Each structure stands twice: as C-alpha cells, then as structure tokens.
From TrEMBL:
Organism: Metaplanococcus flavidus
Cross-referenced InterPro entries: YhzD
Top-level taxon: Bacteria
Pfam families: YhzD
Protein's name according to its UniProt entry: YhzD family protein
Length: 61
C-alpha cells in the first residue's frame, strides 16, 4: 500500500481539507480521492491529490 495526500483550499488560500490515505496504486488513489471530494462536497474547490513520489494525480484550480 502507498500513502497519498489530498488537500483542498478556499479561494482565499485557506486549507479546508487535508486527508492522507492508502491505496494499492495511482488509479485506485484517484478513485478514492474523487470519492472523498464528492462526500465532502469539494469537487469544485481548488484541490490536489499527490502520490508518494510527488506526482499530481488530481488537480483543480
């Protein structure tokens, strides 16, 4: 399992979500990240999901 980091921000730059979770691979992490964003109603907020290697898997500004 690999550890991924999901963050979301308001337009002011204030962090409104900071989640760390594990997944088997990048594809599963993207799916899980999208689920978390949807559950919290943050799909339209600025957000990013980074892999353990620092690769951006999801990004929305």
């Amino acid at each position: 399992m690999r550890t991924y980091k999901l963050t979301a921000f308001e337009q002011t730059g204030k962090m409104i979500a900071d989640e760390t979770f594990t997944a088997e691979n990048d594809d599963q992490a993207k799916e899980k990240g999208q689920e978390i964003l949807k559950e919290k109603g943050l799909e339209d907020q600025t957000h990013r999901l980074a892999s353990p290697a620092g690769k951006l898997l999801l990004f929305h500004s």
